[in-house]
């Protein structure tokens, strides 16, 4: 079912190109205009069938869109939303796919012409691989997508955004931008910080003696440093709180080993196993977020 | 090529049963006697073709063995080695597959009758799954196995042990027990501690908002709490040192985010990525250790 005439996708990496692919293949949009900074990425996405049109000019690309999806790195999202808002027609809905929300909402507030709406989205999907060449039509299938409307959001706009993600197979959840950021600090940003510290703390000469446990625990540390720097910078407060909870558990583990207090140690390890087992039982697959 | 007439395997879980399977299928041993505490595990291992004989009595099982491999949990290994040593014939070689080494060596020292030799082994193989039903004939293929001979070790015995692991497809490395424990504290025990702290620090109500990154980072936290309690207890000093290095990196990350110091933050994230990428490029597969 066609939901949109023209969708503009700003930034055609893995997420942007997968969105285009999903929209076109499922006939949810008539046209998908890819907006990028590099001809090469646009060409790859076009060849993959993820776009119907391409342009290097954001203002031109969003002019006729009824939906704009901003898929650029977190540090650029607010600027791209504002630029899109100034150049699209009245009635256009803008969303993004950024890993943080509150800062973006704050930076966009007051910059939207009347008739143009922004509602944040965050699909918990992706992976270590990046770039339009890895686009998947089913990338969002079965994944959680958090949308963050606020008091000013019109029900029609929220319905349209909700339908978009549902049509792509996602499970949509509604939260405030602040709730989102607190949750993702714990479930995504902290794990990345910890994985990076673990990889950085392993002496070079011991890398040969790592096995599956180390490999799993540090896998996300292979992510793009600059992208993660932007995410951390954009979510300082909630990340600090999540880190404090982690340090508290780590200190309790250390203390129980040092004393030793077998019962306390077993209790924490059992709680950890219990939470991990819950996720194993309920999770469908393994995108990163 | 047959290396041993009779091999006794004490403890037939995933590792013990995989050893038996490898020894019999590759015709490296004529007989493999499985020694266990529960009839059921022995029956499963026997049915899988991992054993030729079974017994519940350690003393009886090791009596005719020329090689004894102790595959019980870390906290029981030293006792089982001593019991095996008291009941086997002169000339028998004993090894184990425990995740720590120095404590076991210390607890065994002075308890070996003359003519009976112990050399520690640690195959970096395994997984989240446990039990003889998951035994794999190729579990050790391409994996690192660390052996820890000391000054008293006779070259013939070391050669025999080395040949055993090589015949099973492993890459054998020689270290002192102390070097082993320091290395594995960083590459295996610390990742487990960190994964457990991360899983335990994630509030229950947010488990639904985890994705692949959290799932990877916490995967090993699903391991058996009691087994890991024993490993931590058996390697306190080296674990403390590895934890201190981790906490140093984590503190540096936190500080660089708080200040903010983008350059310092990017530098740590880049180092982490570099180390992770080295392992991705060089590792064969993903057993846990």
Task: Describe the structure concisely.
The structure is a homodimer of 289-residue chains. With 289 residues, chain A is an alpha/beta fold. The first copy, chain A, has 11 helices and 9 strands.
Features:
289 residues; elongated; three-stranded mixed beta sheet; homodimer; Rossmann fold; alpha/beta; 2 domains; disordered C terminus; 9 strands
Estimate the strand proportion of chain A. Answer: 5-15%
Helix content of chain A: 40-55%
Overall pLDDT score of chain A:
95
Low-pLDDT windows of residues of chain A = 285-289
CATH topology of the largest domain in chain A: Rossmann fold
Question: CATH class of the largest domain in chain A, please?
Answer: Alpha Beta
Report the total helices of chain A: 11
Gross morphology of chain A is elongated
Neighbour order of strands in the largest sheet of chain A:
3-2-1-4-5-6
Question: What this model shows, in words?
Answer:
Two copies of one chain form a homodimer. Chain A is an alpha/beta fold and 289 residues long. Chain A folds into two domains: 172 residues, Rossmann fold; 103 residues, 6-phosphogluconate dehydrogenase C-terminal fold. Helix content of chain A is 50%, strand content 14%. The first copy, chain A, has eleven helices and nine strands. Chain A has a six-stranded parallel sheet, sandwiched between helices. Chain A has a three-stranded mixed sheet with strand order 7-8-9, covered by helices on one side. In chain A, β1, α1 and β2 form a beta-alpha-beta unit. In chain A, α7 packs across α10. The longest helix of chain A is centred in the middle third of the chain and has 25 residues. Chain A is elongated and about 65 Å long. The C terminus of chain A is likely disordered. Chains A and B meet through α7, α8, α9, α10 and α11 of A and α7, α8, α9, α10 and α11 of B.
């Amino acid at each position: 079912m066609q939901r949109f005439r023209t969708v503009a996708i700003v930034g055609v990496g893995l997420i942007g190109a997968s969105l285009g692919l999903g929209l076109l293949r499922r006939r949810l949009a008539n046209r998908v205009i890819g907006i990028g900074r590099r001809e090469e990425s646009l060409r790859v996405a076009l060849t993959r069938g993820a776009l119907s049109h391409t342009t290097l000019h954001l203002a031109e690309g969003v002019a006729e869109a009824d939906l704009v999806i901003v898929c650029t790195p977190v540090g650029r999202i607010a600027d791209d939303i504002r630029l899109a808002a100034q150049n699209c027609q009245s009635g256009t809905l803008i969303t993004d796919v950024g890993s943080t929300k509150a800062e973006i909402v704050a930076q966009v507030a007051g910059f939207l012409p009347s008739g143009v709406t922004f509602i944040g989205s965050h699909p918990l999907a992706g992976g270590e691989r990046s770039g339009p060449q890895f686009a998947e039509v089913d990338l969002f299938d079965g994944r959680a997508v958090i949308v963050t409307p606020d008091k000013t959001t019109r029900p029609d706009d929220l319905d349209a955004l909700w339908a978009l993600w549902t049509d792509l197979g996602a499970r949509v959840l509604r939260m405030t931008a602040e709730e989102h950021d607190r949750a993702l600090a714990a479930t995504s940003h902290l794990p990345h910080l910890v994985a990076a510290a673990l990889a950085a703390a392993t002496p070079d000469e011991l890398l040969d003696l790592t096995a599956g446990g180390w490999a799993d625990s540090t896998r996300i540390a292979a992510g793009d440093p600059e992208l993660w720097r932007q995410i951390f910078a954009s979510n300082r407060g909630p990340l600090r709180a999540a880190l404090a909870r982690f340090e508290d558990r780590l200190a309790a583990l250390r203390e129980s080993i040092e004393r030793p207090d077998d019962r306390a140690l077993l209790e924490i390890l059992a709680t950890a196993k219990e939470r991990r087992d819950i996720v194993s039982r309920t999770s469908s697959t393994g995108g990163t977020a």
